[in-house]
TrEMBL record:
Cross-referenced Gene3D superfamilies: HAD superfamily/HAD-like, Spore Coat Polysaccharide Biosynthesis Protein SpsA, Chain A
SUPFAM superfamilies reported for this sequence: HAD-like, Nucleotide-diphospho-sugar transferases
Main location: cytoplasm
Sequence ranges assigned to domain Glycosyltransferase 2-like in this UniProt record: 9-123
Domain of life: Bacteria
One example GO MF annotation: hydrolase activity
UniProt xrefs under Pfam families: Glycos_transf_2, Hydrolase_like
Family: Belongs to the GmhB family.
UniProt-annotated location(s): Cytoplasm
InterPro entries: Glyco_trans_2-like, HAD-like_sf, HAD-SF_hydro_IA, HAD-SF_hydro_IIIA, HAD_sf, Heptose_bisP_phosphatase, Histidinol-phos, Nucleotide-diphossugar_trans
Protein name (database record): D,D-heptose 1,7-bisphosphate phosphatase
Keywords tagged on the record: Carbohydrate metabolism, Cytoplasm, Hydrolase, Metal-binding
Length: 499
């Protein structure tokens, strides 16, 4: 990279918080070269459109997830982008005035084995008093590793590992998980010299209880990355073992009292009280010790141990068996006749291009998740003299009108005896589509109704899914490794990661 930002896109997932305006103002007034694009990913289930119109911003595009969570929002952002680098920013940070310039310098001439560059974070704390428990917790972001408050990744690195694991429902651990998977490929992550400010968001007194839901995500991290994941991710264990012990003491006290053993119950209750008091003081002592803060720490310190233990146990049950995250494919290619549209042999009449049930909805669902779509179609009628190439093109234009837009349209006009490399089951069209869109064949899925479609996918190094019709040969159906009853079901499998 030559140091400019034309090969980078800034992606900001947002739920429409007021802090987004502060971020956009900072990006509009910052000095330095602008990136190719700024993509705002609106992750609200509904709401009025975002209005990012400010002079000084790079070209802005807004896309919507419908409320899929931060991991899905970031995935949609990078899948929508087409640049070499994707720079993620959270919607509650404030980049320094020279952030664009520093980003360009950080990304310039990085070796090929460097997959990501993390920015530096400052968290301002009150200068005139001790910080509260919530403020101290937020300040930990300044020393955290691989957080996407400001982290730029090569798009190819994101694609290779399937992006963010959407099984992490919160803005917690999903960035550490991604970093570990990227580094597992042999790539490196480095720290740059650019800075952002991460203000402490206002929060109610129960925020420390709600964030205990992240204990379930810690279980998922252990399942995915093994017992040493905390060391690799620079994520300290914290007080979960103590929380488990305090909770066990409380349960023992209740059980012993119910069983008519008051002395033993009193001992267990004393252990619970001592553990709770120690935890509360550990949080109160370094803080401002105002009446409100002390009351909040006392109340939440009694609640956090059982809540943390509950979420940890929930994670143990929920994540008993987990597979490595594969994510969505980068490209899904469809056979045309018999798969997207009803098969009228050697059709050259656009009026007879008639989509199968659910075709438009299936394609739109893929597009909405940032997956590119295309068509690979054998048209031997041209070689046989039954239709012209112009008629084929007219039918393809009609297909795009009804079901489009498509990112690639590949047609083979040859006959079965012409010995070409493009006619399915040969892999030529699949490889050409991947090359055109700069997609690794391993991140491509081909959906078709006959064995030649699946064989072409496998020959190209892609994944084939067969959607048989009444005319599909039984032997071809039995030979297909992946099958779906309908086009809609095939796309369901792709979007669920079953490909």
């Amino acid at each position: 990279m030559d140091g400019g930002l034309g090969t980078s896109t800034v992606v900001v997932p947002t739920i429409g918080r007021p802090s987004l305006d502060v971020l956009l103002d900072a990006l509009a007034t910052a000095s330095g070269p602008r990136p190719a694009e700024l993509i705002l990913v609106d992750d609200r289930p509904a709401g009025s459109p975002l209005r990012p119109d400010r002079p000084g911003l790079p070209p802005v595009r807004v896309v919507r997830t419908g409320g899929g969570g931060p991991a899905r929002a970031r995935n949609l952002g990078w899948r929508t982008a087409r640049t070499e680098w994707i720079a993620f920013l959270d919607d509650d940070v404030v980049p320094d005035p020279d952030w664009y310039q520093r980003l360009a310098e950080d990304l310039a001439r990085l070796p090929a084995d460097v997959a990501g560059s993390q920015g530096r974070v400052r968290v301002p704390l009150p200068p005139d008093r001790r910080p509260t428990d919530w403020e101290r917790g937020t300040a930990g972001l300044a020393t955290s590793s691989w957080i996407t408050a400001d982290l730029a990744y090569r798009r190819a690195a994101l694609s290779a590992v399937g992006g963010f694991d959407e099984r992490f429902p919160r803005a917690f651990r999903e960035d550490s998980d991604l970093a570990l998977r990227v580094m597992d490929t042999g790539a490196r992550l480095v720290r740059g010299r650019r800075w952002i400010t991460h203000p402490v968001r206002p929060a109610d007194r129960w925020i420390s209880v709600r964030v205990q839901a992240g204990n379930a995500d810690d279980v998922l991290m252990r399942r995915l990355h093994g017992p040493d994941w905390r060391t690799r991710a620079d994520a300290p264990l914290g007080r979960r073992p103590q929380h488990t012990a305090v909770t066990a003491a409380a349960l023992a006290a209740a059980g012993l009292a119910a069983g008519g053993r008051p002395r033993a119950a009193a001992v267990a209750a004393a252990a619970w009280l001592a553990g709770t008091a120690e935890f509360a003081w550990a949080r109160i002592a370094p803080g401002p010790r105002t009446r409100a803060e002390v009351a909040t720490m006392a109340a939440t310190s009694a609640l956090i141990p059982p809540v943390a233990t509950w979420h940890w146990l929930r994670g143990v049950v929920r994540h008993r068996r987990v597979a490595r995250w594969r994510g969505l494919p980068d490209l899904v290619l469809f056979d045309r006749d018999g798969t997207l549209v009803h098969d009228f042999p050697y059709n050259g009449d656009p009026d007879w291009v008639r989509p199968v049930a659910g075709a438009k909805e299936a394609l739109d669902r893929l597009r909405a998740r940032g997956v590119r779509v295309g068509v690979v179609s054998n048209q031997s009628g041209v070689a046989r003299g039954l239709i012209t190439r112009e008629q084929v093109d007219a039918c393809m234009d009609r297909l795009a009108e009804l079901l489009g837009p498509f990112d690639t349209l590949q047609v083979c006009p040859h006959g079965p005896d012409d010995g070409c490399s493009c006619r399915k089951p040969a892999p030529g069209m699949v490889k050409a589509a991947c090359a055109q869109l700069d997609v690794e064949p391993a991140r491509c899925v081909v959906i078709g109704d006959i064995g030649a479609d699946v064989e072409a996918a496998e020959a190209a190094g892609a994944v084939g899914i067969m959607v048989p019709t009444p005319v599909t040969r039984r032997a071809e159906v039995q030979a297909a490794a992946r099958r779906a009853q309908t086009l809609t079901a095939a796309v369901d499998d792709v979007l669920a990661g079953r490909w």
